[in-house]
Amino acid sequence: MAVLLSRTKGMLFLLFLPCFCSGQPAPPPLRFSIFLDPSKMVYLRWDHDEEELMTFELQVHTTGWVAFGFSSHGELPGSDIVIGGVFPNGSIYFSVS
Known about the structure:
The chain is mostly beta strands. It has strands at 2-5, 11-14, 32-35, 42-48, 54-62, 65-70, 80-86, 92-96. A 4-stranded antiparallel beta sheet has the order 1-6-7-8, with no helix packed on it. The model is unreliable at 1-20 (pLDDT under 50).
């Protein structure tokens, strides 16, 4: 698992956004969590359901963007990456590669 961060400063960015628009109830609390860095500025929470669907929440102190990668070998090259951020006007973007 790899995490890329912009220069860390004031804003808290959440990668996981609850289903505000779907009309469905909020998911149950996530059972597993860990800080991914010694300064405790990157906090990951996760869980899975009976169908093995995984839910992740990533809390990061950042200047407006974060990238999060998944791989079976623990390295960035060849990993699946999600990049998300907040534009200066407040709109949110996500990209998957």
